[in-house]
Amino acid sequence: MKKKRVLHTSTLRKIEGSIFIAPWVFGFLAFVAFPLGYSLYMSFHQVRITVGPTVYNFIGVQNYKEILVANGSLLYEDLIPFLRESIMMIPIILVFSLLVAILLNMKFKGRTVFRVIFFLPVIFSSGQIVQEFINQGEGSLSVLASLRIDEYLREYVPASWAEPIQSVMSSFVLVLWYSGVQILIFLAGRQTLSASMYEASRIDGSGPWNTFWKITLPGLVPYIFLNLMYTVVDLFTFPSNPIVSKVNTANYGSSSALAWIYFTIILLFVGITMLLYSRVDKTLSGSRS
């Protein structure tokens, strides 16, 4: 009798779990899986919108060939400079967020107010608002213009890198202003580190700099990986992203193919991020043992 009651309870728990997860499964299938599959289907077709039913003419990988080979400028002229910007911007955001999180973890008057100030832009700033700030040139550092940094870049830096650097500087303040989520994650990660480790480090005579490299940074490696993943996805879907704007065209077949190419590039970046994290984690676990 007791065994039957246990089986009955486990069955009820499975049913309860299925009921709770059912809205998410339905939402994923209806609003994520179906649009993804439909866009993949359209990428292999020439789509024509008519008064009657939509006409689909199968053309195979012709849309992909046109984007990658025949009309490569559609992708490469905007993608390569954007990738260069991302390579520069990702470490800037991570370092800035980490330093601010460490400062906000210290005990001082008004600490809660400063935490709210750094996170408020994430709540109130929609993508359109950020885009308007960028279009008006409000995200640049005024001191850079007074120092004529752009002239030095054009003179001493190759043109292929000068333009991405100028673009990063033109939206530098806004991107850092948009780093509230990363700061919050680093702050939560810093608070998981035991205070006893820092106390033992001080007793042993270790200074703040040595403590940061030996305790804080290794302890925050999982959170660095999480923020790295979040920042990669966030930058690749940022309002000023030039590739996303090219996806929204009336040519549904070509736009779908471009979206899937771009999605593959994002997955490649995420895969590189996971590979780097696994290497770093193995190195740190070896040093701990």
Unreliably modeled segments? none
Indicate the proportion of strand residues: under 5%
Largest sheet, order of strands side by side?
1-2
Portion of residues within helices? over 70%
Q: What is the mean pLDDT? A: 78
First and last CA, distance: 49 Å
Helix and strand content put the structural class at mainly alpha
By DSSP, the count of extended strands is: 2
Radius of gyration, taken over Cα atoms and rounded to an integer in Å: 25 Å
- What is the oligomeric state here? single chain
Tally the helices: what do you get? 15
What profile does the largest beta sheet have? 2 strands, antiparallel
Tertiary shape: globular
Order of helices and strands: HEEHHHHHHHHHHHHHH
Structure write-up:
This protein has 289 residues and is mainly alpha-helical. It has helices at 2-43, 62-70, 73-105, 111-124, 127-135, 142-146, 149-156, 159-170, 172-177, 180-192, 195-203, 208-219, 221-236, 242-247, 252-288, and strands at residues 45-48, 55-58. It has a two-stranded antiparallel sheet with strand order 1-2. The radius of gyration is 25 Å and the shape is globular. The mean pLDDT is 78.
Give a brief description.
This protein is an all-alpha fold. It has helices at 2-43, 62-70, 73-105, 111-124, 127-135, 142-146, 149-156, 159-170, 172-177, 180-192, 195-203, 208-219, 221-236, 242-247, 252-288, and strands at residues 45-48, 55-58.
